Amino acid sequence: MQSSRPDRIRKLLADLVAFDTVSDRTNLPLIAHIESYLAAFGIKGERIIDETGKKASLWVTIGPEDRPGLVLSGHTDVVPVVGQDWSHDPFKLVERGGKLYGRGTTDMKGFVAVCLAMVPEMVEAKLKTPIHLAISYDEEIGCVGVRPMLREIAKTKVKPLGAFIGEPTEMKVIIGHKGKHGVRATFRGLARHSSIAPDGVNAIEYAAELITEIRRRAVKLAAARSTDSLYDVPHSTLLTSIVHGGAALNIVPDACTVEFECRGIGITESREVTDAIVAWAKAELEPAMKAKNADCGIDFEEILDYPALDTAADAAIVTLAKSLAGRNDHAKVAFGTEASLFASMADIPSVVIGPGSIAQAHTPDEFVEMAELEKCAGFVERLIAHCKKG
């Protein structure tokens, strides 16, 4: 006797949570497990392996391969649990009061589990419009792993009609999110005994000038509020997030590292803001450092980059998402997703819609409500019915 759909979802989610796929570890055992599960239904996916051979994405087509289809996309990596106060093993699924606890339950193995649980229905439906599963890695460190997969998809003759990225939105239809550009600035100073501090080049003090400038520009961005009321934070944000420097109280510091980010509303605004800061630092700070010593200066390095998402409210994929979700509204969010890369790299119109709340993501005792997973299953069920008709 076939198990009920909720039980299938629970079992699959328990299996997925049990794989420790924190981003600094391999996800290959999890990918192999999914491949084995799909093989039982006669389905074979395509692995896209990274340069290290330790990570892979999986592209799966259910239905005809010569027709444009619709994508259900989720990532397999999770954020670390180190330093968090969990009440149980984070890699073992625990159910209490209608909530399923475990690392990644909300972000976003719950969505992946629902999609996999609905595979029997997809196969049975004999789809006329294919459904694709796009399962990626390293989303949490800058949407890294989906890019090789999207480059391959962009080469295909038959392009998908659209994509649903299942990040936690409480099944709300999200048509836009901010982009992000992160930069690391490494200041190279000149060490001296602090008693002769003027002979040195203080890397921390020059870094402090950069931090002050970042703060000044952040205030200016906040004042220039967007007219786009769909965002809960209706302006681009800019901040310094990490600073490292100094060795001892009596040494002029010869090194300091500063990491900063911009989350921009405009498609390319994030990079434009950080590029302007880099240009300012090279023009205003670096010459003064080099005037003291030619070997001093600032090295800039991109940490991560993804564009903003801005899908038109009247786009066909938005209309379809609302129909499948049983909603008439749409919104935008501050957090980033792979949706903008589906749009920018492969020209696939995308929306973000998935079970659970972003408030639970990355937290100790992360959970997703079973009711949310069942709502998501209903969404996929209606997608199957839509694709069955062709």
TrEMBL record:
| Pfam families tied to this protein | M20_dimer, Peptidase_M20
Name what cofactor the protein needs.
Zn(2+)
Molecular functions (GO terms): acetylornithine deacetylase activity
Q: Which PROSITE patterns match?
A: ARGE_DAPE_CPG2_2
Where's the Peptidase M20 dimerisation domain? 175-287
Task: Look up the EC number in the record and give it.
Answer: 3.5.1.16
Q: Which UniProt keywords apply?
A: Amino-acid biosynthesis, Arginine biosynthesis, Cobalt, Cytoplasm, Hydrolase, Metal-binding, Zinc
Q: Which InterPro entries match?
A: AcOrn-deacetyl (IPR010169), ArgE/DapE_CS (IPR001261), Bact_exopeptidase_dim_dom (IPR036264), Peptidase_M20 (IPR002933), Peptidase_M20_dimer (IPR011650), Peptidase_M20A (IPR050072)
What's the superkingdom here?
Answer: Bacteria
The family classification in the record reads:
Belongs to the peptidase M20A family. ArgE subfamily.
Instruction: Report the protein name in the record.
Output: Acetylornithine deacetylase
Q: Which organism is it from?
A: Bradyrhizobium zhanjiangense
* Lineage of the organism: Bacteria, Pseudomonadati, Pseudomonadota, Alphaproteobacteria, Hyphomicrobiales
Q: Which gene encodes it?
A: argE
